[in-house]
Amino acid sequence: MSSSHVVKRLASTFTQRPSPPKGHLHFPQPSSTFPKGYVLTGLHAGVKKVAEKLDVAVILSTPPDGKPTAAAACFTRNAFKAAPVLVSNDILKRNGGYVRGVVVNSGCANAVTGKQGMEDAWAMVRETDALLPASASTEGGKKFEHETLVMSTGVIGQTLPISKILSGIQASKSTLSSDFSAWERAAKAFMTTDTFPKLRSRVFTVGGVEYRLAGMDKGAGMIHPDMGPASTSFSTPKQLHATLLGCIMTDAAVTPRSLQSALMYAVDRSFNSISVDGEMSTNDSIYLLANGAAAPQNSVPIDEETDPERYEVFKKELTDFAADLAKLVVRDGEGATKFVTVTVKGAPSYKDAHSVASRISTSALVKTALYGEDANWGRILAATGSVPLSPSLTTGEPTVIDPTKVSVTIVPADGTAPLPVLVNGEPENVDEDRAKEIMTQEDFELLVDLGGLGDGEAQYWTCDFSYEYVSINGDYRS
Amino acid sequence: MSSSHVVKRLASTFTQRPSPPKGHLHFPQPSSTFPKGYVLTGLHAGVKKVAEKLDVAVILSTPPDGKPTAAAACFTRNAFKAAPVLVSNDILKRNGGYVRGVVVNSGCANAVTGKQGMEDAWAMVRETDALLPASASTEGGKKFEHETLVMSTGVIGQTLPISKILSGIQASKSTLSSDFSAWERAAKAFMTTDTFPKLRSRVFTVGGVEYRLAGMDKGAGMIHPDMGPASTSFSTPKQLHATLLGCIMTDAAVTPRSLQSALMYAVDRSFNSISVDGEMSTNDSIYLLANGAAAPQNSVPIDEETDPERYEVFKKELTDFAADLAKLVVRDGEGATKFVTVTVKGAPSYKDAHSVASRISTSALVKTALYGEDANWGRILAATGSVPLSPSLTTGEPTVIDPTKVSVTIVPADGTAPLPVLVNGEPENVDEDRAKEIMTQEDFELLVDLGGLGDGEAQYWTCDFSYEYVSINGDYRS
């Protein structure tokens, strides 16, 4: 730090570049790209004060032949899990991976709300169950007691205005639809500090059959999820807080076991690879439904063990799609003015590459440098060097980075030439004008090559750290 | 997040409370409280541009009987270690824990400077060696080739203006002194973005004999050290960056082995328990010299194995003193307006308590809430719950927090009543006026009780996250 910097510190002159508007990231998508066999809606039930703000979403799977819909979930690994997380995990476990409904509220996280919170989450489930058409068939002839998963996001330590929410769920019946506007309403009902609804759809092909994926998610702050698969071991009920929620639907048919395995793979490479502020929430949840409505005549669901080829294609499509949804959250990060891809390669393993990318993506010094549009590779190296790597599998010795083999490159998103700033540990004589040219753009990539420790490679998506983030979170409750 | 907050996000109105002046934390201390047998100075050699800014410190141990001075060090665990770190570790190893000099420069970190950097660090060592009086005795009759440790802090990727620094070291001879003003000059030469010199001294008693400790440190940003003991296994020479530096001197006599062990214990509970921004530097170093000048007649140095009683007293005094120095760094944290103690108890182990306290202390959401003077215990819980705890020693099963047993209390520093905000997992009906009363003060404590998982307890010291931090680090190099 130069002495002129000391003077600058004392002067404390603030300039700000506000987060640019993101409205263009929401746009109409053709109905033909949305999965068949789903009806949904979003409405204002009264959780949020402002009447125009939607706060309850209902999503029902209604495949024409009434067969069960496979479901999978990834939940936060936080020790303080919110009531909807515990209830949804319970239902998924009881049903062996089948549900037909999802109900979501924003505005209140139903977290640290004790027994009342659990009762309220169950009440939302029951009210949504009542909207479902009678099930023509159930798995192994067994009737499911509950068929709805629940999610909540918003303020914590407050109980839900449950009667308003239940009335809202009841009233939703009349507006349930498969139109684009219904998908849009549902996506809007997920929002908290989000500045636009996050909704995407796409068509893909597996084994010559056309399927569709659609999904919505929300999140802007408290974003650094680490979600594990739906599981049988959860801590006791009493918990907290809100942030990353997502729900993905497909009209492919997939077995529950394979759906869960594909979702975990996809979430690791999408939602578990983003950071706005390094904060893991207690409500983070991603749900995935697969109702087989695309090709009812094809009665063989995709399965990892019996049909690995179709499964791999599905898993890849799902991963790409989940990454698209996850990136929308980073783009809408609280105060974010940059969208930065952090790629780490040459690590001993994927896990090591992921850890280093995560550390760079959460570094306050890296993120303030991104805001300052400053090619400060020193901060990138310092963050990189602070991560302990896995010990060598062959010798058991700690893996040590060789600084003389590490390279850092800034890669513009516009296809023009990448700018190496450190090559094999030697600082390049960087053209600062060119660096500025790249970094004043909204999108670019930081590529860190650890120099041949292995073929581990991972990507992370992060944003910058701005005055606006401090402003948004410095007086959250006031 | 409430819907009114969405509106607030879009409005983005910024209010700021700048970091208050900290000059009162530097004050004269009586010469009698400084350890005997040290001369030192600080001067402007020309690394920094502004002529009034001191940038080179020289510290020599000159005990009256000329006996060797024991030395210990803790260095950053970052994979990218700066040249002065590598050179100092090498000397300490060669000498078996004896040195008599320390030389420090600020303004340039001598990091990522390749072979030239290593040569420059060695040149600083040799130039300072030349200032030392001939050694009357050496350890085991062996003459040491080098007897100086070196530290650098400042900008990275630039080589030192080495001839200016060497001239400065030479010129320092005429101003070496044991006066308070000499200690002050040395402390000033450590500074980079620090707003005041960090210098403390104290008198303590071990076994009826009076000893003294004095120390200086620096740091304001890139502060989240994790330092290990001086060691024989370091990565290859090529490295980077700058921040926490400290040097502590005592006139007690301590064996090198016990000095190293006491320093590691103290550093874990002081410098390794502070965070300004969660960033581990590549230059973090703490040195400790013990020259035995207080009681030359007492020829038996303090030793852990042969004299555990005296050793424990010394270790405790050293730990308290190191914590005092470490806290000064947090007080001067870049943009800091709050000084917050984070105490975690009821954890399975000290290590677990330390991990949880560290996570809370680095959470961007907790730290922006501190800036906003907002008793947002939800963010504290979310951070707490995101830390995986050690598995049980008896069963090997993962230790799981029971949310119904967790309590959070805000403890004012003024001795008035603590304010419980969460008791056994139940949110208290918090008196928000009282919460505000406590949190508008500069100092307070966040106490998190994990509820009897064990007797692990640890403290961390952190500051808030402000606009000013973003300002300081958003255009560091421009």
User: Which chain pair shows the most residues in contact?
Assistant: A-B, 101 and 103 residues
Strand content of chain A: 15-25%
What spatial form of chain A do the alpha-carbon principal axes imply? globular
Instruction: Report the uncertain regions of chain A.
Output: 1-14, 232-242
The biggest sheet of chain A, with number of strands, parallel, antiparallel or mixed sense and barrel status, is: 7 strands, mixed
InterPro entries (chains A, B): Arg_biosynth_ArgJ, ArgJ-like_dom_sf, ArgJ_beta_C
Function (chains A, B): Catalyzes two activities which are involved in the cyclic version of arginine biosynthesis: the synthesis of acetylglutamate from glutamate and acetyl-CoA, and of ornithine by transacetylation between acetylornithine and glutamate.
Pfam families (chains A, B): ArgJ
Subunit structure (chains A, B): Heterodimer of an alpha and a beta chain.
At a glance:
Chain A has helices at residues 3-11, 83-94, 114-129, 162-172, 180-189, 256-268, 308-331, 350-362, 364-371, 377-385, 432-439, 467-474, and strands at 38-43, 56-61, 70-76, 101-108, 148-155, 198-206, 209-218, 227-229, 245-250, 274-275, 285-290, 339-347, 407-412, 419-423, 426-427, 443-449, 456-463.
